[in-house]
What we know:
There is one protein chain. The chain has 338 residues and is mostly helical. Among the domains are: 45-120, Arc Repressor Mutant, subunit A; 207-279, no CATH class; 304-337, no CATH class. The chain is built from eleven helices and six strands. It has helices spanning 45-48, 55-66, 75-81, 86-99, 207-218, 220-223, 231-246, 251-259, 269-279, 288-291, 323-337; strands at 102-108, 114-120, 142-144, 164-166, 304-306, 313-315. A two-stranded antiparallel sheet has the order 1-2. A two-stranded antiparallel ribbon has the order 3-4. The longest helix has 16 residues, at 231-246.
Amino acid sequence: MATPQVIAPLCAQPGSPGTQPDVTPTSGVLHVTVRHISGFTVIGNHLAQHRGLSLTAIGLAAHIQSLPAGAKVGIKVLTARFPESEARVSAALHELEATGYLHRSRVRLPDGRMVTRTVSYNQPGSTAPAPQPRPRRSEPPVTLAVPPPPAPPREAAAPPPAPVEVPPPPPPAAPELLPPAAPAYVPAPTASRKQPAPLPQPHAPTEELHRAATALLADLRRHAPQLTLAEADIEALAPGVAAWLERDAHPDTIRHALTSDLPTPVKHPAKFVRSRITTLLPPPLPGIADLASPPRRKVIVIPLQNCDTCDRAFRATHPGHCRDCRIDAHQDLHTAAA
C-alpha cells in the first residue's frame, strides 16, 4: 500500500504519435471545392502546371479544350475574344504546337479552297480513337430436335431424350480499323520578297571621303541614341555616305536626313540607316552650263517686195510678181494656147 499506483495516462506531448495535426496551412492558397454538375471541362495537371508553357498558352489551351467541335479558333477570332494582341496569341499557339497540345495543318477542300484544320489534344501524344464496330444483336440459341430411336419390341417405350442445344456460330471477326492518316501539310503561298536597292557608291572614292563618312556615322549616336551602330556596320555603310558627300551634300544635311522622324523603337539601326541612305540620295549638283539660259533661236525675216505688175507689197526673197499676178499670167497663157 505504500507504493503509489499510477492509473491516469500521461499527457500526450505536442507532435507525438496519436495526435491529430492541424491540416490548415498557415500560408499559401486555400481551396474551396464545389462539385460541378454541368458545364465543366476536365483538364489534366500536366497542362495546368506545365513548367514550359506561359500563362497565356495554358489559358488558351484550356479555352480551346472547353469549346465544342467545329468552333473557330483562328488568330483573328481569339484576338477579338481576349485582350491579348495578335502577336501574343500567335506565340501561344506556337507553344501549344511545340508541346503537342495543338496541331494545325493546311488542307484542300473538294471545291479547291485551302483551309486550316486545328486538332486539340487534351493529352499530348494521343491519337483520335478509331470507330469501334457496332456489336451485333445476340441471336437465340438454335435448338435441334433429335427424333427418338424406335422402341425395342416387347419392351416399354423409353422416354424421349432431351433436346440438344447447339450454340450459334461465333460472329466473324471485324477487320481492324486503322486510324485515318493525317492530311498532308500544304504550305500557304507566299509572295516573293523584294530585294533591297543596292547601296550607292562614290564615283571617285578617296581616303578623305571615307574618313569623313565614318566619322559622320559614328557621331550619329550623339544626336540619336537609337542609331548606335557597330563598327562593322559603319564600315559597310561608309561608301553610301561618301556618295552623299561627293554630291556636295553638307554633313548637317546628311545628319538631319538620317536622324529626323525616327520610328519608336528602331529595331535594326543598320538596316534603317541603309534604307535612308539609299532612298533619300540627292542628285548631283548641276553645273554652270546646265544652269545657263538656252540660246535664242535666230528668226529669219523675209523682206517686203513690190509687185512689178500691180505694185502690191508682198514678202519674198527676190523681187518679182505677187501671187495673184502670177495666177493671172498663167491663166492668160493657157487661154492664148487654146
